[in-house]
Amino acid sequence: MTITIYHNARCSNSRRALELILASGAEPHVIDYLAEPPTRAVLADLISRAGLSVRDAMRTKEKEYAGLGLADAADDALLDAMVAHPALINRPFVVTPLGVRLCRPGDLVLDILPA
What we know:
Glutaredoxin; 4 strands; arsenical resistance; arsenate reductase (glutaredoxin) activity; oxidoreductase
């Protein structure tokens, strides 16, 4: 069983999700998405599979959001901004055989962890 977490160690939600994954006995593939941002296609796929809008997957309180004038931007521009500035990607995204979830709060990972 493969579990992947797009992780930011400074984020309490991300740390909590990772903690729960590890407690389940799984050995997840941990991607530091700030150092290794997903491609535009991967990011769009994660967002779609999680059932989110592109804007729902964006961190609007980051300085880049205002600095890039993204408040009224279209989805394509938002995706491009998130790839160029991965701090704008909301976290953590977790991928398991049971689906994809933006785990905010981190306990939401429990919904997609295999028993």
